[in-house]
């Protein structure tokens, strides 16, 4: 589990085909990394991935075809900045919201504008996922826990304060770029419970 509070920004350093899928190497950049362990989970742009190799400045993950097809990792080019977060500990403060690292789908950044000192972003999202997005609810965009400011039948808006822009890969995001979306866990479970309420 993660919180959606980014701990560092790294970059994609290498991609190597491996038996039909890929091994990817991530430079850790500003991520605190001194006590990394083999097999631990790190969220890369919101995707929960397993560390299979590491050194002092990077780690490698194996990306399955499912991950490559359903997240932005499949289209990412070498040098692309990525948001990084290590898995939360039970004693951590939950400053964002509960994030599983299981990406639900992709949204497209369609508009960006200044709003006083904040930056507002508009994302287009397909309706099957948009139904889980609620006004003033939480959404995870490329691993970042954000509050939904506006939602309608084509997409949603979020506002990023200067600290968020400066300390995440949002500083490099461009209009037209796709991003990973994870909807709120509670919304998925409420839907499932409602769908099975007649089960005995």
Please tell me about this protein's structure:
- The protein has 200 residues and is mainly beta.
- It folds into 2 domains: 8-86, Elongation Factor Tu (Ef-tu), domain 3, CATH 2.40.30; 105-192, Elongation Factor Tu (Ef-tu), domain 3 (Beta Barrel).
- It has helices at 65-70, 127-130, 162-166, 185-195; strands at 8-18, 21-27, 41-44, 47-50, 53-54, 58-63, 81-86, 105-115, 118-124, 138-141, 144-151, 155-160, 178-182.
- The protein has a 7-stranded antiparallel β-sheet with strand order 4-3-7-1-2-6-5. A 6-stranded antiparallel barrel has the order 8-9-12-11-10-13.
- The longest helix has 11 residues, at 185-195.
Annotation keywords:
seven-stranded antiparallel β-sheet; riboflavin biosynthesis; Elongation Factor Tu (Ef-tu), domain 3; 200 residues; mainly beta; 4 helices; ATP_synth_asu-like_sf; 2 domains
Q: Could you write a compact summary of the structure shown?
A:
The chain contains 4 helices and 13 strands. The protein has helices at residues 65-70, 127-130, 162-166, 185-195, and strands at residues 8-18, 21-27, 41-44, 47-50, 53-54, 58-63, 81-86, 105-115, 118-124, 138-141, 144-151, 155-160, 178-182. The strands form 2 sheets. A 7-stranded antiparallel beta sheet has the order 4-3-7-1-2-6-5. It has a 6-stranded antiparallel barrel with strand order 8-9-12-11-10-13.
